[in-house]
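Quick question, first post here. What does this chain look like in 3D?
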Amino acid sequence: MALDEPKDGDDKIMVDDFNFVIEDEISNSYGKFIVDYGDSWLRRGFTVTPDRVGPSC
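> Answer (accepted):
Ran it through. Tokens below.
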């Protein structure tokens, strides 16, 4: 996950007050994502996980 500006063909998603931009190719391969934030001594920060497994190579 990184800060980026939308490009032509990117999917733009707004959830609550957050804007997310995802490349169309990744969005088509995985569909939904889970964005989580952890604030513990083992894990601090955001994680992005596909809601399902994408196609294999």
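The first strand starts at residue 11 and ends at 15.
The two ends are 22 Å apart (CA to CA).
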